[in-house]
Amino acid sequence: MVRGLAAEVPWPPSVDDFFLPPIAGPDNWFTKFTLFVWVAVAITIIFFLVAYRNPKLVPTKSQWIAESAYGFVRDGIAKDIIGAEGIKFAPYLASLFLFIAFNNLWGIIPGVQLSPNTHIAFPAFLAIISYVLFIWVGVKRFGFAKYIKNQLIPPGAPAWLLPLVIPLEFASTFLFRPLTLALRLFANMFAGHVILLVFTLGGFVLLGSDNFALAGISIVSWAIAIVMTIFELLVALLQAYVFVLLTSVYVQTSIAEEH
Predict the structure, then answer these.
(1) Could you read off the pLDDT of 126-185 as tens digits, one per residue?
(2) Which residues contact residue 1 at a Cβ distance below 8 angstroms, ignoring those fewer than 6 apart?
(3) Known CDD domains for this protein (predicted)?
């Protein structure tokens, strides 16, 4: 039995919780997710413009944060994974990292608590951009025919094994890479939101129970929700890192002579 506020809480959470009402526009295209994404883009652009509007030899706090974020991606991902050529990809990779991170962080901001990346369309579009990038740099480096050969035929593979290897390499490179990029980001943000919903709404439901013991457990449920929110912060940043890291790996394999 539940009463009061608990009786009004939708339970259990479902995929309907991921579809926010539209705001405006023809066919209601302008949704809250669209707004969140645009704000994330604006934050990314303004963050760097403000930090570098008047660069100093001894950096200001904002300049230091921007340089640290960029340096982390440039040195810790681009150069480490791609090599010396990774520097020219660093601006894109740093922007991608911050954009994904800002969008993921919507999932723990009070009053929002839902990341655009819980909808597969957003991670899928980011995966397509990375997909086009690593194919484009490979074709530019080697030409179409040699690039395809490099990706599908491992060095030293015996000829009798090629009918098995080539389809596997094709699926791995041109099908599974963008698919897994998108699904990994989507699944982690989707699952995190569901977990937070379960413990947050579960606290309200238990609070309205006639059973005193169950009502007391509501405090535990909310405490777990707080702990999971902190964990979601780590997941949000980690998933941005993993997405950029894998993009760098795919670029490196595209421009390498052998893979």
Answers:
(1) 999 999 999 999 999 999 999 998 888 888 878 888 889 899 989 998 999 999 999 999
(2) 209, 210
(3) ATP-synt_Fo_a_6 (cd00310)
